[in-house]
Amino acid sequence: MSEQPPVVTRFAPSPTGTLHIGGARTALFNWLYARGRDGKFLLRIEDTDKARSTDENRQAILDGLGWLGLDWDGEPISQAERANRHAEVAQQMLADGTAYKCFSSQDEIEAFREAARAEGRSTLYQSPWRDVPDADHPDAPFAVRLKTPQDGQTLIKDRVQGDVTWGNDQLDDMVLLRSDGTPTYMLAVVVDDHDMGVTHVIRGDDHLANAARQIGIYRAMGWDEPIWAHIPLIFGPDGKKLSKRHGATGAAEYQAMGYPAAGMRNYLTRLGWSHGDDEFFTDAQARDWFDLDGIGKSPARFDLKKLENLCGQHIAASSDAALLQEAEAFLTATGQLNLTEGQRDGLLRAMPHVKERAKTLPELLDKARFVLESRPLDLDEKAAQTLDPVSKGILTDLTPQLQDASWDRDTLEEVTGQIAAANGLKFGKLAAPLRAALAGRTVTPSVFDMMLVLGRDETIARLEEAAA
């Protein structure tokens, strides 16, 4: 029994735009499939549209994949730089008789289509040059077209869509080389996939019709076809193709909103793929479980609430050190403050107390604001209102009691409880001015968590400042 070749997948974005969330999921599926099988995940930049491709978009795509943690093998391949190789294959097909020279002008082709539309006929152009011998060719510019079989069917054995057949009479003799000698996208894709050793083409189902035409090139060249897997597109909550009207659609936008990469990976993996009833899973589990058989045929709907829920679970489950690293990367990516060493240490100490129930990194940092700010604190309006003369007097009474107290939760609860009782209050009434004094606001983590994170000296200094 022959040994199966190693799995090679690829992601092939065009730098005419940044990384769309649908493209990010396609890249993720390819990455998971390769990484789960000790295979290779390759990156090809399809930059043949020189007018619309930009270096900025190319970098944005690389940055987006980097944020999602989707590492690729080797250097990214530029499709534009391989134009000579694409043309070489077209010339080989000409020599083999599987392609031919077409001297029809664009005006002639358009005139044919206009007449066909007017008469209600198919606008599929059948070139009159298909079987004209070389001796009868004019000395004029020509395109190179594939000789597509004119009868029978083309079968796509697709791992997601099942068997899909196209009548060959519905397929045109597609152009491989334009009359200026430049290769078409359809030719370039097939040549690149073959030369890169791609074994599995996992891409959006909007390319399904392309597969029927591209198979003709594989067969004309005698190349093995890859395994096809055309995945459904992502829809918005209204059941229409995901677009700007639904909100953010770019990976960079979700990074800037502070969604953690692990949560985003988990959510995008579950978007159109399932493993039983599992919703929350780790990267290792995703790599082990992911298979093409688990991909559904119907479009998946993007649900922001589910994304937030999963991201919250990943933040809570992350190690404190990993969260600190991700928070710093978020601050850098969004051009916000660079943490000082003291802020980093404080945030790390605060992490166990602030990561529960935070769904995004901004929420996490907002909860940790008390340890990131330095005195004098800038009190918000509600906090300032809680620090009335009575509350300031109680804080003045509390401060000396904390000077020599053991700095553990039980002791702090006992001391503050005694001060509250001595003033005829329940602790809840004392909590608001304590929050204001320690954090400059009234919605914060637990008062005692903040005291433990800040330490004795900083806690007392903040209480004294608020009382004054």
3D structure, described in words:
49% of the residues lie in helices and 10% in strands. By secondary structure, the protein is mainly alpha-helical. Among the domains are: 81-231, HUPs (Rossmann fold, 3-Layer(aba) Sandwich), CATH 3.40.50.620; 318-372; 381-467, Orthogonal Bundle (Arc Repressor Mutant, subunit A). A three-stranded parallel β-sheet has the order 1-2-3, with helices on one face. A three-stranded antiparallel β-sheet has the order 4-5-8. Helix 6 (208-221) links the parallel strand 9 and strand 10. Helix 3 packs across helix 5 (185-195) and helix 5 (185-195) packs across helix 6 (208-221). It is elongated.
Notable characteristics:
468 residues, Rossmann fold, Arc Repressor Mutant, subunit A, 49% helix
